[in-house]
Amino acid sequence: MVADLSQLVKAYDVRGVVPDQWDEPLAELFGAAFVQVTDADAIVIGHDMRPSSPGLAAAFARGATARGADVTLIGLCSTDQLYYASGALDLPGAMFTASHNPARYNGIKLCRAGAAPVGQDTGLTEIRTLVEQWSEHGLPATAATPGTVTERDTLTDYAAHLLGLVGLSGIRPLKVVVDAGNGMGGHTVPTVFAGLPLDLVPMYFELDGTFPNHEANPLDPKNITDLQARVLAEGADLGLAFDGDADRCFVVDERGAGVSPSAITALVAARELARNGGKGTVIHNLITSWSVPEVVRENGGTPVRTRVGHSFIKAEMAEHGAIFGGEHSAHYYFRDFWNADTGMLAALHVLAALGGQDGPLSGLLDRYDRYAGSGEINSTVADQTGRLAAVRAAYGSREGVRFDELDGLTVTGDDWWFNLRASNTEPLLRLNVEARDEKTMTAVRDEVLALVRA
Protein backbone atom coordinates (compact mmCIF):
# COMPACT_ATOMS: atom_id res chain seq x y z
CA MET A 1 0.00 0.00 0.00
CA VAL A 2 1.38 3.41 -0.98
CA ALA A 3 1.92 5.71 2.00
CA ASP A 4 -0.11 8.94 1.89
CA LEU A 5 2.49 11.65 2.35
CA SER A 6 0.33 14.56 1.20
CA GLN A 7 -0.26 15.76 4.77
CA LEU A 8 3.16 14.70 6.04
CA VAL A 9 5.67 16.32 3.70
CA LYS A 10 5.43 20.09 4.07
CA ALA A 11 7.14 22.89 2.14
CA TYR A 12 10.20 22.91 4.41
CA ASP A 13 10.15 19.69 6.42
CA VAL A 14 8.39 16.45 7.31
CA ARG A 15 5.84 16.73 10.11
CA GLY A 16 2.84 14.73 11.32
CA VAL A 17 1.22 12.68 14.07
CA VAL A 18 2.98 9.51 15.29
CA PRO A 19 1.96 6.74 14.67
CA ASP A 20 -1.21 7.82 12.81
CA GLN A 21 0.53 9.57 9.90
CA TRP A 22 3.99 8.06 10.11
CA ASP A 23 6.06 5.61 12.10
CA GLU A 24 9.50 3.96 12.30
CA PRO A 25 9.18 1.84 9.11
CA LEU A 26 8.36 5.03 7.19
CA ALA A 27 11.26 6.85 8.89
CA GLU A 28 13.55 4.08 7.62
CA LEU A 29 12.40 4.76 4.06
CA PHE A 30 13.03 8.48 4.55
CA GLY A 31 16.58 7.70 5.67
CA ALA A 32 17.26 5.64 2.56
CA ALA A 33 15.68 8.24 0.27
CA PHE A 34 17.64 11.09 1.91
CA VAL A 35 20.92 9.32 1.21
CA GLN A 36 19.96 8.62 -2.40
CA VAL A 37 18.80 12.18 -3.15
CA THR A 38 21.80 13.85 -1.49
CA ASP A 39 24.22 11.20 -2.82
CA ALA A 40 25.78 11.20 0.63
CA ASP A 41 28.35 8.69 1.82
CA ALA A 42 28.00 9.98 5.40
CA ILE A 43 25.31 11.90 7.34
CA VAL A 44 24.69 13.24 10.85
CA ILE A 45 21.48 12.70 12.84
CA GLY A 46 20.15 14.40 15.97
CA HIS A 47 16.86 14.38 17.84
CA ASP A 48 14.83 16.25 20.45
CA MET A 49 13.25 15.03 23.70
CA ARG A 50 9.92 13.79 22.32
CA PRO A 51 9.16 10.18 23.35
CA SER A 52 9.06 9.04 19.71
CA SER A 53 12.25 10.82 18.62
CA PRO A 54 14.95 8.25 19.53
CA GLY A 55 13.12 5.41 17.77
CA LEU A 56 12.43 7.45 14.64
CA ALA A 57 16.04 8.66 14.49
CA ALA A 58 17.34 5.10 14.85
CA ALA A 59 15.02 3.90 12.07
CA PHE A 60 16.20 6.72 9.78
CA ALA A 61 19.78 5.66 10.51
CA ARG A 62 18.96 2.06 9.52
CA GLY A 63 17.63 3.27 6.20
CA ALA A 64 20.71 5.40 5.63
CA THR A 65 23.21 2.67 6.48
CA ALA A 66 21.30 0.21 4.27
CA ARG A 67 22.10 2.52 1.35
CA GLY A 68 25.79 2.49 2.31
CA ALA A 69 26.08 5.78 4.20
CA ASP A 70 28.00 6.09 7.44
CA VAL A 71 25.96 7.70 10.22
CA THR A 72 27.11 9.96 13.05
CA LEU A 73 24.56 10.10 15.85
CA ILE A 74 24.77 13.22 18.02
CA GLY A 75 21.79 12.23 20.18
CA LEU A 76 19.79 14.84 22.10
CA CYS A 77 20.32 18.27 20.58
CA SER A 78 18.65 21.51 19.55
CA THR A 79 17.98 22.06 15.85
CA ASP A 80 20.70 24.68 15.62
CA GLN A 81 23.10 22.22 17.28
CA LEU A 82 22.32 19.81 14.41
CA TYR A 83 23.02 22.64 11.95
CA TYR A 84 26.33 23.24 13.75
CA ALA A 85 27.23 19.56 13.33
CA SER A 86 26.25 19.63 9.64
CA GLY A 87 28.41 22.71 9.12
CA ALA A 88 31.41 21.74 11.22
CA LEU A 89 31.51 18.13 9.96
CA ASP A 90 30.47 19.12 6.42
CA LEU A 91 27.78 16.43 6.33
CA PRO A 92 24.11 16.33 5.34
CA GLY A 93 21.94 16.26 8.46
CA ALA A 94 18.58 15.13 9.79
CA MET A 95 16.97 16.58 12.92
CA PHE A 96 14.02 14.74 14.47
CA THR A 97 11.69 17.29 16.00
CA ALA A 98 8.23 18.81 15.59
CA SER A 99 9.47 22.09 17.08
CA HIS A 100 6.59 23.66 19.04
CA ASN A 101 3.85 21.23 17.95
CA PRO A 102 2.02 19.11 20.57
CA ALA A 103 3.57 15.91 21.93
CA ARG A 104 1.86 13.51 19.51
CA TYR A 105 3.62 15.16 16.56
CA ASN A 106 7.11 14.54 15.25
CA GLY A 107 9.02 15.48 12.14
CA ILE A 108 12.33 15.76 10.30
CA LYS A 109 14.24 18.90 9.36
CA LEU A 110 16.74 18.01 6.64
CA CYS A 111 19.81 19.80 5.34
CA ARG A 112 22.67 19.17 2.95
CA ALA A 113 26.32 19.48 3.97
CA GLY A 114 27.09 22.88 5.46
CA ALA A 115 23.52 23.19 6.79
CA ALA A 116 22.16 24.08 3.32
CA PRO A 117 18.36 23.70 3.42
CA VAL A 118 16.41 20.82 1.93
CA GLY A 119 12.90 21.98 1.04
CA GLN A 120 10.22 21.38 -1.55
CA ASP A 121 12.35 22.78 -4.38
CA THR A 122 15.71 21.55 -3.11
CA GLY A 123 15.24 17.79 -2.72
CA LEU A 124 12.23 17.20 -0.50
CA THR A 125 9.90 16.51 -3.43
CA GLU A 126 12.30 13.86 -4.76
CA ILE A 127 12.58 12.30 -1.30
CA ARG A 128 8.80 12.13 -1.04
CA THR A 129 8.53 10.45 -4.46
CA LEU A 130 11.05 7.76 -3.51
CA VAL A 131 9.36 7.07 -0.15
CA GLU A 132 6.01 6.70 -1.87
CA GLN A 133 7.47 4.27 -4.42
CA TRP A 134 9.32 2.24 -1.84
CA SER A 135 6.35 2.08 0.51
CA GLU A 136 4.52 0.22 -2.24
CA HIS A 137 7.30 -1.90 -3.74
CA GLY A 138 9.87 -2.11 -0.94
CA LEU A 139 13.42 -0.82 -0.83
CA PRO A 140 15.66 -1.70 -3.77
CA ALA A 141 18.70 -3.83 -3.06
CA THR A 142 20.76 -2.67 -0.11
CA ALA A 143 24.37 -1.56 -0.53
CA ALA A 144 27.03 -4.27 -0.82
CA THR A 145 28.73 -2.73 2.22
CA PRO A 146 26.33 -1.22 4.78
CA GLY A 147 27.34 2.02 6.44
CA THR A 148 28.63 2.28 9.98
CA VAL A 149 27.09 4.03 12.98
CA THR A 150 29.14 6.10 15.43
CA GLU A 151 28.15 8.40 18.28
CA ARG A 152 29.57 11.86 18.87
CA ASP A 153 28.91 14.60 21.43
CA THR A 154 28.89 18.05 19.79
CA LEU A 155 27.38 20.17 22.57
CA THR A 156 30.66 21.59 23.93
CA ASP A 157 31.98 22.40 20.46
CA TYR A 158 28.65 23.99 19.50
CA ALA A 159 28.78 26.23 22.59
CA ALA A 160 32.39 27.21 21.91
CA HIS A 161 31.60 28.13 18.30
CA LEU A 162 28.72 30.42 19.33
CA LEU A 163 30.68 32.07 22.13
CA GLY A 164 33.49 32.76 19.69
CA LEU A 165 31.13 34.90 17.58
CA VAL A 166 30.02 37.32 20.34
CA GLY A 167 32.18 39.36 22.70
CA LEU A 168 30.87 38.58 26.18
CA SER A 169 34.03 38.72 28.30
CA GLY A 170 33.52 42.26 29.56
CA ILE A 171 29.78 42.30 30.26
CA ARG A 172 28.41 43.30 33.65
CA PRO A 173 26.67 40.65 35.78
CA LEU A 174 23.09 40.03 34.67
CA LYS A 175 20.19 38.15 36.17
CA VAL A 176 18.38 36.20 33.44
CA VAL A 177 15.35 33.96 33.66
CA VAL A 178 15.22 31.27 30.97
CA ASP A 179 12.04 29.33 30.18
CA ALA A 180 13.03 26.22 28.20
CA GLY A 181 9.44 24.97 28.00
CA ASN A 182 10.66 21.43 28.79
CA GLY A 183 12.36 21.54 25.40
CA MET A 184 15.93 21.39 24.18
CA GLY A 185 16.90 24.74 25.68
CA GLY A 186 17.11 22.83 28.96
CA HIS A 187 19.88 20.79 27.34
CA THR A 188 21.85 23.56 25.61
CA VAL A 189 21.54 26.62 27.88
CA PRO A 190 23.52 25.25 30.85
CA THR A 191 26.53 24.50 28.64
CA VAL A 192 26.40 27.68 26.53
CA PHE A 193 25.89 29.98 29.54
CA ALA A 194 28.48 28.25 31.75
CA GLY A 195 31.27 30.63 32.66
CA LEU A 196 29.35 33.81 31.79
CA PRO A 197 28.66 36.37 34.56
CA LEU A 198 24.99 35.42 34.71
CA ASP A 199 22.69 34.66 37.61
CA LEU A 200 20.62 32.07 35.75
CA VAL A 201 17.08 31.34 36.93
CA PRO A 202 15.96 28.18 35.09
CA MET A 203 12.31 27.42 34.33
CA TYR A 204 11.08 24.07 32.98
CA PHE A 205 14.57 22.78 32.11
CA GLU A 206 13.50 19.13 32.57
CA LEU A 207 13.41 17.48 29.14
CA ASP A 208 9.84 16.30 28.69
CA GLY A 209 8.31 15.90 25.25
CA THR A 210 4.80 15.80 26.72
CA PHE A 211 5.18 19.52 27.60
CA PRO A 212 3.56 19.36 31.06
CA ASN A 213 3.76 23.09 31.82
CA HIS A 214 2.82 24.85 28.58
CA GLU A 215 3.26 24.50 24.84
CA ALA A 216 6.85 25.14 23.79
CA ASN A 217 5.70 27.90 21.44
CA PRO A 218 6.67 31.34 22.77
CA LEU A 219 5.12 33.03 19.72
CA ASP A 220 1.75 32.51 21.46
CA PRO A 221 1.55 35.14 24.24
CA LYS A 222 -0.12 32.74 26.69
CA ASN A 223 3.03 30.60 26.72
CA ILE A 224 5.29 33.34 28.08
CA THR A 225 3.06 34.49 30.95
CA ASP A 226 4.99 32.30 33.44
CA LEU A 227 8.26 33.81 32.25
CA GLN A 228 6.93 37.36 32.47
CA ALA A 229 5.73 36.83 36.02
CA ARG A 230 9.04 35.24 37.05
CA VAL A 231 11.12 38.08 35.58
CA LEU A 232 9.16 40.53 37.72
CA ALA A 233 9.25 38.34 40.82
CA GLU A 234 13.03 37.86 40.55
CA GLY A 235 13.79 41.48 39.63
CA ALA A 236 15.66 40.05 36.65
CA ASP A 237 17.35 42.04 33.91
CA LEU A 238 15.59 40.03 31.20
CA GLY A 239 13.90 36.76 30.34
CA LEU A 240 14.50 34.35 27.45
CA ALA A 241 12.05 31.76 26.12
CA PHE A 242 13.02 28.99 23.71
CA ASP A 243 10.70 26.88 21.59
CA GLY A 244 10.67 23.07 21.67
CA ASP A 245 13.73 22.47 19.49
CA ALA A 246 15.40 25.67 20.80
CA ASP A 247 16.11 27.20 17.41
CA ARG A 248 13.94 30.24 18.20
CA CYS A 249 14.40 32.62 21.12
CA PHE A 250 11.95 35.20 22.47
CA VAL A 251 12.92 38.02 24.81
CA VAL A 252 11.12 39.63 27.77
CA ASP A 253 12.43 42.90 29.17
CA GLU A 254 12.91 43.87 32.84
CA ARG A 255 9.32 45.13 33.02
CA GLY A 256 7.97 41.74 31.97
CA ALA A 257 7.01 43.05 28.53
CA GLY A 258 7.52 40.88 25.47
CA VAL A 259 10.06 42.29 23.01
CA SER A 260 9.20 42.35 19.32
CA PRO A 261 11.41 39.95 17.30
CA SER A 262 11.74 42.81 14.81
CA ALA A 263 13.44 44.88 17.50
CA ILE A 264 15.81 41.99 18.20
CA THR A 265 16.46 41.69 14.45
CA ALA A 266 17.34 45.39 14.29
CA LEU A 267 19.58 45.18 17.38
CA VAL A 268 21.49 42.14 16.11
CA ALA A 269 21.75 43.64 12.61
CA ALA A 270 23.40 46.75 14.05
CA ARG A 271 25.85 44.63 16.03
CA GLU A 272 26.70 42.34 13.11
CA LEU A 273 27.24 45.36 10.86
CA ALA A 274 29.57 46.90 13.45
CA ARG A 275 31.41 43.59 13.66
CA ASN A 276 31.88 43.72 9.88
CA GLY A 277 33.16 47.27 9.66
CA GLY A 278 29.80 48.89 9.02
CA LYS A 279 29.29 47.04 5.74
CA GLY A 280 27.15 44.13 4.68
CA THR A 281 23.77 42.94 3.50
CA VAL A 282 21.01 42.06 5.97
CA ILE A 283 18.01 39.95 4.90
CA HIS A 284 14.59 40.55 6.46
CA ASN A 285 11.22 39.11 5.57
CA LEU A 286 8.36 41.33 4.49
CA ILE A 287 6.50 41.25 7.81
CA THR A 288 9.37 42.59 9.90
CA SER A 289 9.00 46.16 11.12
CA TRP A 290 9.90 49.25 9.08
CA SER A 291 12.52 49.77 11.81
CA VAL A 292 14.65 46.86 10.50
CA PRO A 293 15.64 48.31 7.10
CA GLU A 294 15.91 51.76 8.70
CA VAL A 295 18.42 50.55 11.30
CA VAL A 296 20.34 48.56 8.68
CA ARG A 297 20.76 51.67 6.49
CA GLU A 298 21.64 53.86 9.50
CA ASN A 299 24.46 51.46 10.34
CA GLY A 300 25.90 51.36 6.82
CA GLY A 301 24.27 48.15 5.63
CA THR A 302 22.06 47.15 2.74
CA PRO A 303 18.64 45.67 3.58
CA VAL A 304 17.10 43.03 1.30
CA ARG A 305 13.41 42.15 1.68
CA THR A 306 12.21 38.60 1.05
CA ARG A 307 9.30 36.20 1.49
CA VAL A 308 8.43 34.55 4.80
CA GLY A 309 10.10 31.17 5.35
CA HIS A 310 13.54 29.89 6.18
CA SER A 311 14.25 28.43 2.73
CA PHE A 312 13.75 31.87 1.16
CA ILE A 313 15.86 33.61 3.79
CA LYS A 314 18.68 31.09 3.42
CA ALA A 315 18.59 31.34 -0.38
CA GLU A 316 18.84 35.13 -0.19
CA MET A 317 21.60 34.89 2.42
CA ALA A 318 23.64 32.75 0.04
CA GLU A 319 22.88 34.82 -3.08
CA HIS A 320 23.80 38.15 -1.47
CA GLY A 321 26.57 36.93 0.81
CA ALA A 322 24.53 38.45 3.63
CA ILE A 323 25.99 38.69 7.12
CA PHE A 324 22.66 38.31 8.95
CA GLY A 325 18.98 37.65 8.40
CA GLY A 326 15.94 37.95 10.65
CA GLU A 327 12.28 36.98 10.61
CA HIS A 328 9.43 38.33 12.73
CA SER A 329 8.84 34.74 13.89
CA ALA A 330 12.12 34.97 15.87
CA HIS A 331 14.28 32.97 13.48
CA TYR A 332 17.73 34.58 13.21
CA TYR A 333 20.26 33.57 10.54
CA PHE A 334 24.00 34.19 10.56
CA ARG A 335 26.61 34.01 7.81
CA ASP A 336 29.11 32.72 10.38
CA PHE A 337 26.70 29.93 11.30
CA TRP A 338 26.51 28.54 7.75
CA ASN A 339 23.57 30.88 6.97
CA ALA A 340 21.48 28.76 9.33
CA ASP A 341 19.17 29.99 12.07
CA THR A 342 20.13 29.96 15.73
CA GLY A 343 18.10 31.58 18.48
CA MET A 344 20.92 30.95 20.92
CA LEU A 345 23.34 33.20 19.05
CA ALA A 346 20.71 35.96 18.93
CA ALA A 347 20.25 35.56 22.70
CA LEU A 348 23.99 35.94 23.23
CA HIS A 349 23.93 39.17 21.21
CA VAL A 350 21.15 40.51 23.46
CA LEU A 351 23.14 39.59 26.57
CA ALA A 352 26.27 41.24 25.14
CA ALA A 353 24.41 44.44 24.20
CA LEU A 354 22.64 44.70 27.56
CA GLY A 355 25.72 43.78 29.58
CA GLY A 356 27.88 46.25 27.66
CA GLN A 357 26.00 49.29 29.03
CA ASP A 358 24.35 50.27 32.28
CA GLY A 359 20.73 50.94 31.29
CA PRO A 360 17.78 48.53 31.30
CA LEU A 361 16.81 46.43 28.29
CA SER A 362 13.66 48.48 27.64
CA GLY A 363 15.73 51.64 27.27
CA LEU A 364 18.30 49.91 25.08
CA LEU A 365 15.60 48.68 22.71
CA ASP A 366 13.71 51.98 22.39
CA ARG A 367 15.88 52.94 19.41
CA TYR A 368 14.99 49.68 17.63
CA ASP A 369 11.24 49.45 18.40
CA ARG A 370 9.80 52.49 16.65
CA TYR A 371 6.30 51.62 15.47
CA ALA A 372 3.03 50.07 16.61
CA GLY A 373 2.52 46.50 15.43
CA SER A 374 -0.40 44.10 15.62
CA GLY A 375 1.56 40.88 15.78
CA GLU A 376 0.34 38.04 13.58
CA ILE A 377 -3.44 37.51 13.65
CA ASN A 378 -4.84 34.30 12.16
CA SER A 379 -8.36 33.99 10.72
CA THR A 380 -9.92 30.69 9.63
CA VAL A 381 -11.16 31.30 6.09
CA ALA A 382 -12.59 28.73 3.66
CA ASP A 383 -12.07 30.86 0.53
CA GLN A 384 -8.61 32.35 1.00
CA THR A 385 -8.32 33.57 -2.60
CA GLY A 386 -11.73 35.23 -2.50
CA ARG A 387 -11.05 37.07 0.74
CA LEU A 388 -7.65 38.29 -0.50
CA ALA A 389 -9.35 39.58 -3.65
CA ALA A 390 -12.00 41.35 -1.57
CA VAL A 391 -9.36 43.11 0.52
CA ARG A 392 -7.45 44.18 -2.59
CA ALA A 393 -10.63 45.53 -4.16
CA ALA A 394 -11.51 47.49 -1.03
CA TYR A 395 -8.14 49.27 -1.02
CA GLY A 396 -7.68 49.45 -4.80
CA SER A 397 -9.44 52.77 -5.28
CA ARG A 398 -7.70 54.62 -2.47
CA GLU A 399 -5.28 57.34 -3.43
CA GLY A 400 -1.62 56.86 -2.51
CA VAL A 401 -2.00 53.18 -1.59
CA ARG A 402 0.65 50.81 -2.97
CA PHE A 403 0.41 47.04 -3.52
CA ASP A 404 2.89 44.25 -3.89
CA GLU A 405 2.46 40.49 -4.03
CA LEU A 406 5.90 39.18 -3.13
CA ASP A 407 4.22 37.01 -0.51
CA GLY A 408 0.46 37.25 -0.23
CA LEU A 409 -0.81 40.84 -0.44
CA THR A 410 1.09 43.77 1.06
CA VAL A 411 -0.76 47.11 1.10
CA THR A 412 1.14 50.27 2.09
CA GLY A 413 -0.19 53.73 2.91
CA ASP A 414 1.62 56.87 4.03
CA ASP A 415 1.89 55.89 7.69
CA TRP A 416 0.82 52.24 7.78
CA TRP A 417 1.15 48.90 6.01
CA PHE A 418 -0.34 45.45 6.28
CA ASN A 419 0.42 42.03 4.86
CA LEU A 420 -2.23 39.37 4.38
CA ARG A 421 -1.11 35.93 3.27
CA ALA A 422 -2.48 32.40 3.17
CA SER A 423 -1.05 29.57 5.25
CA ASN A 424 0.57 26.79 3.22
CA THR A 425 -0.83 24.06 5.45
CA GLU A 426 -4.05 25.32 7.07
CA PRO A 427 -7.23 27.20 5.98
CA LEU A 428 -5.91 30.41 7.52
CA LEU A 429 -5.20 33.96 6.44
CA ARG A 430 -2.40 35.58 8.44
CA LEU A 431 -2.53 39.34 9.01
CA ASN A 432 0.29 41.62 10.16
CA VAL A 433 -0.27 45.38 10.53
CA GLU A 434 2.13 48.18 11.43
CA ALA A 435 1.63 51.93 11.72
CA ARG A 436 3.38 55.00 13.09
CA ASP A 437 1.01 55.12 16.05
CA GLU A 438 -1.26 52.76 17.96
CA LYS A 439 -4.51 54.46 16.93
CA THR A 440 -3.78 54.13 13.21
CA MET A 441 -2.62 50.54 13.57
CA THR A 442 -5.81 49.58 15.43
CA ALA A 443 -8.03 51.23 12.82
CA VAL A 444 -6.30 49.48 9.89
CA ARG A 445 -6.25 46.16 11.72
CA ASP A 446 -9.96 46.26 12.51
CA GLU A 447 -10.92 47.32 8.99
CA VAL A 448 -8.93 44.50 7.35
CA LEU A 449 -10.20 41.88 9.80
CA ALA A 450 -13.78 42.91 9.07
CA LEU A 451 -13.15 42.30 5.35
CA VAL A 452 -11.37 38.99 5.97
CA ARG A 453 -14.02 37.66 8.31
CA ALA A 454 -17.07 38.96 6.41
From TrEMBL:
It comes from the Bacteria. Its cofactor is Mg(2+). The keyword Hydrolase does not apply. Residues 376-450 form the Alpha-D-phosphohexomutase C-terminal domain. The keyword DNA repair does not apply. It holds the Pfam family PGM_PMM_III. Residues 7-135, 157-256, 266-371 form the Alpha-D-phosphohexomutase alpha/beta/alpha domain. Keywords: Isomerase, Magnesium, Metal-binding, Phosphoprotein. Belongs to the phosphohexose mutase family. This is Phosphomannomutase/phosphoglucomutase. It comes from Streptomyces mutomycini.
